[in-house]
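Journal club prep — side note

Before the paper discussion, L.F. wants everyone to see what a predicted structure for a comparable chain looks like in token form. Sequence:
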Amino acid sequence: MDRVKIGLICAGMAAVLAVISLNIGGISDYVNAVKNQGSSIAAITAPAFSEQEQTDLLRQIEQEAENKRVAPINARIDRVWKAIPGYNGVEVDIKATYEKTIASGALSPIQFVYKEVNPQVSLRDLGKFPIYRGNPEKKMISIMVNVAWGNEYIPSILNTLEKENVKATFFLDGSWLKKYPEVAKQIQDKGHEMSNHAYSHPNMSELDRQSAYTQIAKTEQLLKSTLNVQNKWFAPPSGDYNQQTVQVASEQGLMTVLWTIDTIDWKKPAPDTIIRRISAKLEPGALILMHPTASSSQALPGMISEAKRQGYAIGTVDELLSPNRVPSVVEPEN
């Protein structure tokens, strides 16, 4: 009797192995199709579908991937806007899409998975040029807050940004940072980007080379020692610069950033005037300049509301000028 039982068990195991071996053939085709990258998920779940179904699915994914591909855009030099950052493309991750679809237990709809594709030319590949805007295909804007004097409106600005879940970039004058390190830390603690606005708000184009270098270097040292910031950007005071300014900033690892839209808040306009000005000029990649003034602090809620109404994501300068694609909540995947 025991020999009979053993025989039956062996026969059953042989049958199971035979079925598994048939399914492994289909998986092998898939593995070859994706250049032997390997797939533990597909190996476990593929037996739910025939070899022909798996082959057809892979072929369909490959065909649709061609139509869904969006080519990356290289960074470039514009005659008016100077250095314009590139923008990542997007394409279907064929292997991940296949695995996710198989794992779902159904061949339709296809569970597309996307990945970003970097451009061949990046912003830093362009050389020493100023930046006035992000890529015009990127539906994101950024708020730049240049801080050189006055603290009374900073709490209001921070409260609005926190309420609206928006991160901004604060360009700090070095002498202000040295005088108000605790205020700077409060801004940083809210998750905002901290960058360089020279040391004593000079007209950078009027300085000799060593003085221009020192203006940036002193603030850069303070950003590191006070806030532990690894900075990337320099905003020249009053937007005043020359090629020497861009050069000495670059020597310190910084790119020179200006603005696309100015609130002109130093003229103390009514908040509604600022909101209308910003609303009329909003465009993808816009850098919006403001200061911690009464006008801008009161206009900020309306500025943010209008940008969101028009479908813009709002990020830091670093986020805007990176080639990374806008989150899908604003820019749906193709």
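L.F.'s comment for the group: The first helix runs from residue 2 to 33. Keep this in mind when we get to the figures.
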